[in-house]
TrEMBL record, chain A:
PANTHER family: ATP-BINDING CASSETTE SUB-FAMILY B MEMBER 10, MITOCHONDRIAL, ATP-DEPENDENT PERMEASE MDL1, MITOCHONDRIAL. Residues 36-271 form the ABC transmembrane type-1 domain. Keywords: ATP-binding, Membrane, Nucleotide-binding, Transmembrane, Transmembrane helix. This is Thiol reductant ABC exporter subunit CydC. The gene is cydC. The keyword Cytoplasm does not apply. Its main location: membrane. SUPFAM superfamilies: ABC transporter transmembrane region, P-loop containing nucleoside triphosphate hydrolases.
TrEMBL record, chain B:
This is ATP-binding cassette domain-containing protein. Gene3D superfamilies: ABC transporter type 1, transmembrane domain (1.20.1560.10), P-loop containing nucleotide triphosphate hydrolases (3.40.50.300). The chain crosses the membrane at residues 21-41, 53-74, 129-150, 156-178, 239-261, 273-295. The lineage of its organism: Bacteria, Pseudomonadati, Pseudomonadota, Alphaproteobacteria, Hyphomicrobiales. Belongs to the ABC transporter superfamily. It comes from Aquamicrobium segne. InterPro entries: AAA+_ATPase (IPR003593), ABC1_TM_dom (IPR011527), ABC1_TM_sf (IPR036640), ABC_transporter-like_ATP-bd (IPR003439), ABC_transporter-like_CS (IPR017871), P-loop_NTPase (IPR027417), Type_1_exporter (IPR039421). SMART domains: AAA. One of its GO terms (molecular function) is ATP binding.
Length: 615, 553
């Protein structure tokens, strides 16, 4: 979905970037100005020192005046350097913050589709790195590059007027070469090769990740030396593709060193030929030598620029990716528990490259009565969670309708819909902050009492009370400071605090033992009768209390009904039959060879639900 | 200290050290040629004529060439060293994975990946590119001044040289002062970055709970507060910049100018111009200061991380298992342990384990977590060297010196499987490279996952993508089982293979294992009654010993 749009031209991206960072531009100019003055003073300092010395030797001048002038120039140069640095840092930090906030503001409305459908790991890690890279442009590229051109032109102009063009025409030529020719020699090739290097590094990192995480397999099957050889081959590609850009950088450095010396030589040679005043010659020669500090700044920045432009492009693409769903016209406000219905729903995920993947949901129709408890059963990948995502409108179905109280969900604003339909999944979804802040994520105005009440329902109040910091306990990154069961219950409490009318429980008992699960179920039932519950579970012991039980397989509902019809046994036999039919179909496995004990165990484990996750 | 030095020597290759010297020499040579040009310019002024001009041009070209050489050589050397380091790190991981590690928690794999990608790059940029050049840059002022002292004027040269140590000292002070501020402001920045990352990681949750706008504003607010604090820190600490910059200009330029004027009776005009031009080279060390923050600090931190990983010690086999006493081996047993002990260095985990798994047998081991089940499995797999007692797998003694052989005798299915980037076929071929399609399908059939793969549009050529998102955990486990079956090894070691899979996958895995012909010997760690039921015998590992468990009929 990210590649589905045409690439914008570079100047559009730059303009877009400039719009975001507009607030820092005045200060960026101040920083630039300070740098320009600093560089000019540097030329003055060296020119003054060399010229002054020669002046004295030839019998003129006042040593006290010279010393005073040198000290004054040196100190004011240092002061401007300080202001340049300070404003530069300010610009960098502020630009970083502006970019971060801007990009975040742009991407959160695109979630969850954005995260689910793009190669999220990639996108999200590159996001922060890309923002950092662009910061580098503001902090370390803009001022050095512009000032190099400005100071260079100014210095030549002033020297030309004061000392005559004849004396400095070679200096001017050398500087022009180093400002306008040297940085651009091979720039395109360098850019392309840098892209190739980055690609090679990505491949290398990928291979290393596989080898390191798959170490058991690598060692178990004796593949160590092959993996090392493959890795080294990829490393070799990095070496090869890095060669051209590196040699171009080295060439620029060499060229600039040579040009700066040629310029200095020319001043002395021409000056002597012209019988120019030795004071002027010495001053101009020393300043010429320093003048090439500017091009050196460009040298350093050009390497960054490649990366930064690529980063800017990625950010642009990310920020301008279309939102998959948008607000409907109405606010969803529910007084009582609503009905939920799915009507001949078809849905397929979009692929990473924008193409459609095969349907994940095929012709699903399902009615959940108001205040009812529906259970969805099926193996992983059967489409249970996709149904819930459609109810929360992560995306819209290809055809068919998802409705609440008979009204299609796309009629509602996304916020009001998701305030009423809250899901708790088995995944850990805690922010790295305090318990209280996590609990208040969906209900920012909840009082402490309300937090405790919610914690009590999920059977966590006592445990939190026992924690030294209580509600202020830090949950750690991804809830790592809590046990799996605790984290899951915090998520449930957080959902309850939002007072949803439809509660989705996606494997929420995965990390809980059965006693705790029962207690929570009881507390939940007492808590609010005005609640429609949709539950996804592997444990079939809950089915007895449910109003509707639907079994999904490969995107279709294969069995649906009340607890009287859809018993654990019925589900088991369904699986059993399907499994056998698959085997007959594939035709090789001798079914009678299977031990009956296995069948029974499988059946029992499905029926009692005691098998998974409890050990 | 001696230890740290030893480590440093072991992580940078001799070639890498030579490269550092070469880079430094290029830098020095370039600076000397620049000085040559500048001195020739002085000769020109003093009437050196064309000869001086020719020399100046020769030096100029050479200075440019050496400058080119420095960067070109350094970059190439860094990339080459990076390759060597990566191999070193990976070999270390393999060594640690096949030995008891003194570090009980180990290095998380994600950190090792960072080490092998980001850190190696930073370290080599520092060692091969930056370090040599910096050493050279520090030497340059001394050399220049020494030359001035000898060839032009001793007073100018040696007086400034006495003051030159102020430069490194000054830089050091600058860094110390700045480091404090920069580490503080870095801390602040890191905090903010972490919050930002966390907000991105939890994007879905935040969005679905309607907290997007609020988090966005909060991030903005915190950023603002944070930045204010950083700027106040910097405003104070960057005063150092004025001092340093002013000090350098004053000491080097004003002093040199002053001395040159004082000594004007002894200096020719050309010499005094040359001296003034040479002061530019005295500023060389300053060129390296900025790099210190970008390259130096990152490189040193990387070096530390890599060094400590490479230095992590393994606990070697304390008493070698006597490989010559092979008479006790029973050919009909695929696993034979007698009085096996094991200690990770934190007290004995295994205290005399006896175990016999007959060829074609199916044996289960239970035990609470931490009882040593994985240690026991590790010994049989050949990833941990047995420390004591007799141990044999598939009729061959486990020789701590030749664990590779032991590892080739069994195939394992762990609790979770890593799927490599590539196709399903690629993943299967990890077990046996030359496996044919028919063999693969056969293994997949036996592992009860063939029908699901056959339904995928690209079948065996299905790309698993990142994190194997295309297939479920249950399917991955069955592919792992297929991989083990394909390996041609007849001893299967299963470590709770169904603990993380859905119900149907579990049923199918159990089914698959139960239906394996008796050609395969199976040793499994499990708590599942369903898996225990297909075992011929079960043992409980308790207090370092195995006890027979009665199997319910």
């Amino acid at each position: 979905m990210i590649t589905a749009q045409p690439d914008p031209p570079l100047h559009d991206i730059v303009r877009w970037l400039l719009r975001i960072t507009r607030p820092v531009h005045p200060l960026l100019l101040v920083s630039l100005l300070c740098r320009i003055i600093n560089l000019l003073l540097d030329l003055v300092l060296f020119g003054l020192a060399a010229g002054g010395v020669v002046h004295m030797m030839t019998g003129g001048g006042n040593p006290g005046m010279l010393a005073a002038a040198l000290v004054a120039v040196a100190l004011s140069k240092a002061a401007f350097y300080y202001f340049e640095q300070f404003t530069g840092h300010y610009v960098a930090f502020k630009a970083l913050e502006l970019l971060r906030t801007f990009v975040y503001a742009k991407i959160w409305p695109k979630a969850p589709a954005f995260v689910t459908h793009s190669r999220s790991g990639d996108v999200l890690t590159s996001l922060t790195r890309d923002v950092d890279r662009i910061e580098v442009v503001y902090a370390h590229t803009f001022a050095p590059v512009i000032s190099a051109y400005v100071v260079g032109s100014l210095a030549i102009l002033i020297a030309g007027i004061l000392a005559g063009w004849k004396l400095i025409w070679v200096v001017g030529l050398c500087l022009a070469l180093s400002l306008f020719v040297v940085p651009y020699i091979g720039a395109r090739r360098s850019f392309n090769q840098t892209q190739a290097t980055l690609e090679a590094r990505r491949n290398l990192a990928h291979h290393i990740t596989d080898t390191v995480f798959g170490v058991d397999e690598v060692i178990g099957y004796g593949r160590e030396s092959e993996r090392i050889a493959e890795m080294d081959q990829l490393g070799g590609e990095v070496c090869r593709s890095a060669r051209t850009p590196r040699n171009l950088v080295a060439f620029r450095r060499g060229a600039n060193v040579t040009l700066s010396l040629v310029a200095t030589i020319s001043v002395v040679w021409i000056g002597m030929g012209m019988a120019e005043s030795p004071v002027v010659v010495a001053a101009v020669a020393a300043a010429s030598l320093r003048l090439f500090k500017g091009p050196r700044g460009i040298e350093d920045s050009v390497g960054y620029l490649d990366h930064s432009l690529a980063a800017a492009r990625r950010l642009w693409e990310m920020s301008n990716a279309p939102e998959r769903v948008s607000d409907g016209p109405d606010e969803l406000a529910l007084e009582a528990a609503p009905t939920v219905s799915f009507q001949s729903v078809h849905y397929g995920y979009p692929g990473a490259d924008g193409s459609a993947l095969p349907d994940a949901i095929i012709d699903v129709s399902l009615q959940v009565p108001a205040g009812g408890h529906a259970i969805l059963v099926g193996r992983s990948g059967s489409g249970k969670s996709t149904l819930i995502q459609l109810l929360q409108r992560h995306d819209d179905p290809r055809s068919g309708q998802v409705a609440i109280d008979g009204v299609p969900v796309d009629r509602f604003t996304l916020d009001s819909l998701r305030r009423n339909v809250v899901a708790v999944s088995q995944k850990n979804q805690l922010l790295a902050t305090t318990l209280a802040e996590n609990l208040r994520l969906g209900a920012p105005d909840a009082t402490d009492d309300e937090l405790w009440e919610a914690l009590a329902i999920v059977g966590l109040a006592d445990e939190v009370q026992a924690m030294p910091e209580g509600l202020d306990t830090h949950t750690g990154q991804n809830g790592s400071a809590l046990s799996g069961g605790q984290a899951q219950r915090v998520c449930l409490a957080r959902a309850l605090l939002m007072h949803p009318k439809i509660l989705v429980l996606d494997e929420f008992t995965a990390n809980l033992n059965i006693e705790l699960e029962d207690e929570i179920r009881k507390a939940l039932a007492k808590w609010d009768s005005e609640l429609t519950i949709i539950e996804i579970t592997h444990r079939l012991r809950a089915t007895a209390h449910a109003d509707v039980i639907s079994v999904l397989d490969q995107g279709r509902i294969v069995l649906s009904g009340g607890p009287a019809d859809v018993t654990p046994e019925a589900i088991e036999s369904l699986f059993h039959v399907r499994q056998r039919s698959i085997q007959e179909h594939s035709g090789t496995q001798a079914t009678e060879g299977r031990s009956s004990a296995v069948r029974c165990t499988a059946a029992r484990s499905i029926a009692t639900g005691t098998n998974t996750f409890t050990s | 200290m001696a230890n740290a030095r030893h480590n440093r020597e072991s992580i940078i290759s001799p070639q890498g050290r030579r490269d550092t010297i070469v880079v430094g020499s290029f830098r020095l040579a370039s600076a000397i040629c620049i000085a040559g040009t500048l001195v020739s310019i002085g000769h020109m002024i003093d009437g050196g004529g064309r000869t001086a001009l020719v020399w100046a041009i020769i030096f100029t070209v050479a200075a440019g060439a050496f400058a080119f050489g420095e960067l070109s050589w350094g970059g190439r050397a860094a990339r080459a060293e990076e390759r060597r380091l990566r191999i070193l790190l990976l070999k270390r991981q393999h060594a640690l994975a096949t030995a008891s590690n003194s570090d009980p928690d180990g290095t998380p794999p994600a950190r090792l990946v960072t080490m092998m990608t980001d850190n190696t790059e930073r370290l080599t940029e520092y060692r091969q590119v930056y370090f040599g050049a910096t050493l050279a840059a520090i030497m340059i002022p001394f050399l220049i001044l020494f030359y001035i002292g000898i060839a032009i004027d001793p007073v100018v040269g040696f007086v400034v040289m006495i003051l030159i140590p102020l430069i490194p000292l000054g830089i050091r002070g600058f860094m110390l002062l700045f480091r404090k501020a920069s580490s503080e402001s870095r801390k602040q920045r890191d905090q903010l970055s972490n919050r930002y990352l966390d907000a991105i990681r939890n994007l879905n949750t935040i969005r679905l709970l309607g907290a997007g706008k609020r988090i966005e504003e909060e991030l903005g607010r915190q950023g603002e507060a944070n930045r204010g604090a950083i700027m106040r820190l910097l405003a104070g600490n960057q005063i150092v910049i004025i001092v340093m910059d002013g000090l350098f200009s004053l000491i080097l330029i004003c002093l040199t100018a002053g001395l040159a004027i004082m000594r004007s009776d002894y200096l020719t005009p050309g010499e005094s111009v040359a001296v003034m031009l040479l002061t530019v080279l005295l500023l060389e060390p300053l060129q390296q200061v900025a790099g210190f923050f970008y390259i130096g600090m990152g490189g040193r931190a990387s070096q530390k991380a890599i060094e400590s990983y490479l230095a992590s010690q393994t606990v070697g086999p304390s008493a070698a298992v006597t490989p010559d006493a092979g008479s006790w081996i029973n050919d009909r047993l695929d696993v034979q342990l007698e009085n096996v002990h094991y200690d990770h260095g934190r007290g004995e985990v295994l205290r005399g384990v006896d175990l016999e798994v007959p060829r074609g047998g199916r044996v289960a081991i239970v035990g609470r977590s931490g009882a040593g089940k994985s240690t026991l499995m590790g010994i049989i797999q050949g990833t941990l060297p047995p420390q004591n007692g007799h141990a044999a797998v598939a009729g061959r003694i486990i020789d701590p010196q030749a664990l590779t052989l032991t590892r080739s005798l069994s195939a394992s299915v762990a609790q979770s499987t890593w799927m490599f980037t590539g196709t399903i076929a690629d993943n299967l071929r990890i077990a046996r490279q030359e496996a044919t399609e028919t063999e693969m399908w056969d293994a997949l059939e036996r592992a009860q996952v063939a029908d699901e793969i056959a339904r995928m549009p690209h079948r065996l050529d299905t790309h698993l993508g990142e994190g194997a998102a295309v297939i479920s955990g249950g399917q991955a486990q069955r592919i792992s089982l297929a991989r083990a079956l394909l390996s041609g090894r007849r001893l299967l070691l299963l470590d709770e293979p169904t603990s993380h899979v859905d119900i149907e996958s579990e049923a199918r895995i159990i089914d698959a294992v139960a239906n394996l012909p008796r050609d395969w010997t199976i040793l499994m760690i499990t708590h599942r009654p369903s898996l225990l039921r297909i075992a011929d015998a079960a043992y409980e590992l308790k207090e370092g010993k195995l006890g027979r468990l009665e199997l319910a009929a």
